[in-house]
Structures are given as C-alpha cells and as structure tokens.
Amino acid sequence: MTCYALSAPMTTAWTYLGFFLVASQVFCAAGCIIDDMWDKDIDAATSRTRRRPLAAGDLSMFQAFVFLILQLTLGIWLFMQLNDYSLVLGLSSLVLMVLYPTMKRVIDWPQVVLGMCFSWGSFLGTASVAGTVDWHIYIPLYMGGICWTIVYDTCYARQDRDEDIINGVHSTAVVFGDQIRPILFMFSFIVCSLVSCAGVLNGNSVPFFIGVAFGALHLVRLIARIDFDNMENCDACLINSTWFGFWVWAGAMADYVVKMQL
What we know:
- It is built from 15 helices and no strands.
- By secondary structure, it is mainly α.
C-alpha cells in the first residue's frame, strides 16, 4: 500500500516483500518458542499439545532458550538492515511478543494482544519504505489485523475450550461461548470495514477493493461451514484463514501494478 501511495519502483515492492517474508518467519518461530516456554506445563495438561517437544520433555528449557537466542539474533540482524525508524519500531514489537503468553493467564481476550503482535508488521512495512508511518491510514489497517486475528485464533482455540476452562487459560473461545459463530461474523465485518477504510484513506482503487471483497467472501464461507465441535475443522481454520490475507494482498498488488503501468 505504501509503494502504491508513493509510486515506488516495482523493485522496491518485490525487495521488501521478500525481506518481510523471511523476517516474518524468523520472528514467528521465535514467538512460538517463547509461547511454548511459557506454556510448557499447560501444554502438558492439554491433550492436543502434550506431544510438543517441551511439553513432552524431548527438549529442555535450556535447549529452547539457545534456539530462541539464535532466532532473535537473526531477527535483530534483519531489522538492522532497515532504516533507524524501522529498527526501533521493530524492536519495540518484542515487548508484545514476550507479553502475549502471560495474557492468557490474566485477561479474557488474549487474542487482542496476539493480534497486536502479529499486525505490527503493518507499521513496520510502511516505515521501511517511507521512513515513517502515516498513522491515519495504518491505524485502521492495524486494527483490522487485530480483528482478523481474533477471528482465526478464536476458531483455532475452540478445540481446546473445555480443557482451557479446567486449566485456567483465558480465551475468546471461552468468552464467546455458544454465540461464537455470530460474534465471529461480526468481527469479520469489522475486519473488512477497517481494511477498506485504510484503502480509501490510502487512495487505492477498484482492484484493491475487489481483493477485499474476495477475502470477505472467504471469511463468510469459512465461518459458516466450520464445525466448532470438530477439532480437525478448528485446526484447519487457522490455515484456511490465510486466504483472506492472500486476497487482500493480491488486490493491493494488482492495484499497484495497474497504477505503475499507466
């Protein structure tokens, strides 16, 4: 979206796309390690997760810590390739990464903090290209990302709801109860509205909004068809929800390419 707004060269868009594809995997892996270290005992008490390496005792906490340091070192080195503004912005996201696992023990909506962590890339992406963040555009996009996280992680967490209640783990899957489907429809509407708002503020044109529309249809279909009492369905929702992100990205990229060809 920033490349679109600035009419940046195609090489800039593809360079940063490749960069953040790698960086996101590194920090996602680091976040998973932190989460598993915090949740070792909870994972051991949950049927779905008790075979995870730390919970099962296949890896020690020290081994996990060493691997975490390696991941963070690589991640911070990647951040250092960006401008100073982006470096500071990127490092600040580490606070959220460490904070999220504790939130499952404190607040009923830990998915909000997870969404804040995952959606931080919306700020970092624009900062890396423009050297700053146009907050009036990217706050709506960031909020949309948080709501999207609530949708897919609530579906994913639903499979552990009964055991989470026993283990004292907080989750929107517990809070939403039997109203989970209509509430997720509501959040899906909010997601699409906020992403569309960001597109309007950014000056995007028709291809972008076509992408959002395809993403919206996908979310509606996903939530309408999921069987919340089926663990495999809930688990698959996490992967299938990525198609929403793909359609939004595809619309944004198509919009950018069309603009650059005119």
